[in-house]
Here is the input.
Amino acid sequence: MAETTAGSSRKLPVLSTSFPQLSPTRSLRTQLFILVIGTILPLSIMSMLNVVRDYQASERAATERVLQITRSGIATVDRELFYLRAGLEVLAISPALQDGSMEDFRAEAERFRERYPGNTAVSISDREGLQLFNTRVAPGQPPVRRNTLDVVAKVFDTGKPVVSDMYIGPISGLAVFTVDVPVFRDGKVIYNLGFSTPRARFVDYLEQLALPEGWVATILDTKGQHVARRPAVAADSITRASDTLIAALATGDEVITETVSLEGKPLLTAFNRSPDSGWTFALGMPADSIRKPALRYLAVTGGVSIILLIIGMTFASRLGAQLIRADSNRELLINELNHRVKNTLSSVLSIVSRTLRSVGSVEGARGAIENRIMALAHVHNVLTNENWDYANIRDIAGTIMSPHADATSSRLRLEGPSLRLEPRRAIPLALVISELATNAVKYGALSVPGGGVRIKWSVDAGHLLLEWSESGGPPPVEPSRTGYGTQFIQGAVTRELGGKVEMMFQPTGLICMIDIPLGAAAF
Here is the structure.
């Protein structure tokens, strides 16, 4: 057994484990960054989802509109063919035709043809397709055989009218179609009465639709050949629809699908096929006509979100450094930071969201957002001077109006008692005054040298009654529809302040009456 002594004993080394600790500054900044991202990101996602939903609703409305046009279009085509058949059936019972007197029949045929201007022709064919009569052929000339012998045979076999597909006329050399009806004698078909019509008749109908630029309208025969098209095709040749549309025609009689035009442009196409003639009316709208605006709004929303994120993170970083240096008030400052960042970002995002829902262009959105954020900044300065306890309405109005008209000049009159408002009422009211001032500078009293604005307020039964009145400017014109500025004012007063607003377009100038309940928070 080994002997141990005190002198030979050794202590085992103690293992010391230390873990790196985040510095207070880094930890606080990380928390603030998460706070900013957590505040902005959900609102940005909601705004983008709203854009997507609006795009889907617009797409459904557009497709329904296109489908309705195709239904109306094919009904018009069927009606035109019906009138042609009905007229020919009346012509088919001509006494001259029954007697076989082609020369006597020529005068009646010419009168019928004159009802349809253009390169038209009336013909009489026998069962073999030999034309016994044609208004284009002078008497005594050798007869010409019909190109569409299948149509002639069908008329003789069924005894019913037939509408042909497009073909090149043997005499005119143009792309035409014919409407053929049987001529009866003693209950038997003795002749085929045909009327050839150039496609120009239906091209004129497509032009009358006055479709937007880039849209494609097409009337197709049973083989998918162009009877008429906009943009137009050559009159002396027969062309077919694009391969994608031909493939879609096989899927049903009324379909909405994506195709590619003959010019190579993607289209959202709807078509409707007639159960009577078998012809099809197709209408295609550029696929980008709906997608581009949606992508533009998504880009604006995303860009604004990124800007706000950068601003928020920069703001959070600076405040974090200040909070670390003021360690004695750390908890108090953190609570204050959370409160102000949320309020500020909520106000800014509310401005952006309402503006993007109502404005018509990216440039308009940018200008409106900048003006409203500057107004928000002005009222923040007023509140900061009072430690965010309250803001005097006179200070609010004077600060907001200072870029446009100084409170000491004759162009601006502020009338009313001293009234202090808490931040949740002061901020929306400042944005409303800023919106009215912007409108006055652009279109109202402040757009001309001699114009002026009076802002008058009073308190009655716990309500703030504020009157904005303009004078000396151009006479206001009441708009035919509510603009995004008016919508912004109405939304701020009704939703955020729980009040009422009334716009009056008087000959002397715009008057805006605002009624806001105050409660016990104003003094």
